[in-house]
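Example record

The entry below shows one chain as it appears in the dataset: sequence first, then C-alpha cells.
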Amino acid sequence: MSVQSPSAVVLIRPHHFGPNPATALDNAFQSVDPTRDAAAIARDAYTESTLLAEALEQAGVQVHLFEDTESVRPDSVFPNNWFSTHPGGRIAVYPMYSPNRRTERRADIIELLKERFRVQDIIDFSGLEHDGIFLEGTGAMVLDHTNRVAYTASSHRADSLALERFCATFGYEPMMFVASDPRGTPIYHTNVMMCIATEFVLVGLSLIENPRRRQEVADRLTEPGRQLIDLSADQVADFAGNAIELRSPQGRILVMSARAAATLRVSQRKVIERSCRIVTVDIPTIELAGGSVRCMIAGIHLDRRPVLV
C-alpha cells in the first residue's frame, strides 16, 4: 500500500482533440504537426487515449473512462487540471487559466465518483476565476501525499493565493519556486518537471532558478528516504518528468510515455525498477498539446463503496 500511488484513475477519451491555441503562449511544450490535418490528429489522439486505458487495465489499474464528444474542449484529455481527489472523501475543483478549458469541468464525472467511492465533501475553488486567480490542479501542483507538501512552480496557472487556500483546506505545506527552461521560459505546469513516487522522485532540479530554493526542494523531496533522480532539461522537454506512480495487484507501476522512457539513462531506470515496473504508451499526438501521460491521468485517492449484492 502507498498513499502516493492510487489504484484507480479517471481518463477522458477525446473525439475532437487538438493543440489549444488559447494555451500556446505560455506552454512551451506545445508543438505542431503540419503533416496531418485536424481530423487526422483527432483520430490519432482518440486511438492513443484508448491505448493508455488498455495498458492501465492490463496492468491491473481500475480505469473509469469517459468520452468527450464536444468540439470546444481541445484539452479535455487532461482532466487532472480541473479536479483532484483526496483521502477522507474529499474532492477539489480548480480555477482554470484559459476560458476555453473551464467547460472541461463535468458534473457526470463527479457524480460517478460519488456513486462508486466514498465522497464526503467537494471543495470548489473555481470561483477564483472571477478574480483572475488560477490553480490548475495536479498540473500546477505536484503533491507529496506522504510528507504533505504541495510543490508548485510559479506561473500564470498557479497563483500563490489559490495555493495557500488549497493547502490550508487540505492540510499541505506550500512549497513554491520559480522554474524555467534553458531559454528562460517559465515552466507552465509543475508536473512536467517533477514526479513523486513512493521510493524515488524524478525532478528537473536545474530548472529551479534560485540555488538555495533548489537545495531546499531537493532536501524536502528526499526527506522520507526517497532517492532523487535528477532529470536534465532535455529529458524534461521529452516529458520524462510527466510520469505517475500507480498501484496494481502485482505491485507499483510507473506510467510514462514511450518518448519519455526512451530518454532515461540506464542508472535512472535501475533506480525506478527497484520499486516499480515501467509501463509505457506511445502518445506522440497527444504530446503535441504540451502534456503527456501524467496530464492524462486523474488519480482516485478515495475509498471504494462496498459492492451491494
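Notes for this example: The chain has a mean pLDDT of 95. The chain has nine helices and 15 strands.
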